[in-house]
Amino acid sequence: QLQLVESGGGLVQPGGSLRLSCAASGFTLRYYAIGWFRQAPGKEREGGSCISSSGDSTNLADSVKGRFTISRDNAKNTVYLQMNSLKPEDTAIYYCAARSSYCSGYVYRFGSWGQGTQVTVSS
Question: What are the start-end ranges of the H helices in 2-109?
């Protein structure tokens, strides 16, 4: 069974940075596109970024473009989300998800999910 585990969340001040990791177990991550999604309290889960299986293609939502970077290290079976210039509105639970096809920003297209990691941006 595909298992994904997110880590790296925490409390950070506005303008700060965090790097989230998404580690896979039970399968080889390199065959999957990986998306990072987030869900703020009282809101629907939304897509933020995605990286293709090869790493050659990335998609970023307008709300995080220029501040977040998604990357992957297939040798380590891990995908990363580098988040810079964090804002209070970035506060959410961040999830990674795997899809055995090309990238997508739609939640329903991803079948395997991690448990999430909390990111809180506050002074």
Answer: none
Instruction: Write the pLDDT tens digit of every residue in 102-117.
Output: 999 899 999 999 999 9
11 forms beta bridges with 120
* pLDDT > 90? residue 26: no
Contact between 69 and 56 (Cβ < 8 Å) = no
Report the C-alpha gap between 68 and 54 in whole angstroms. 19
User: Would you call 86 helix, strand, or coil by DSSP?
Assistant: coil
37: left (phi over 0), alpha (psi -120 to 50) or beta: beta
Residues 6+ apart with CB under 8 A from 108: none
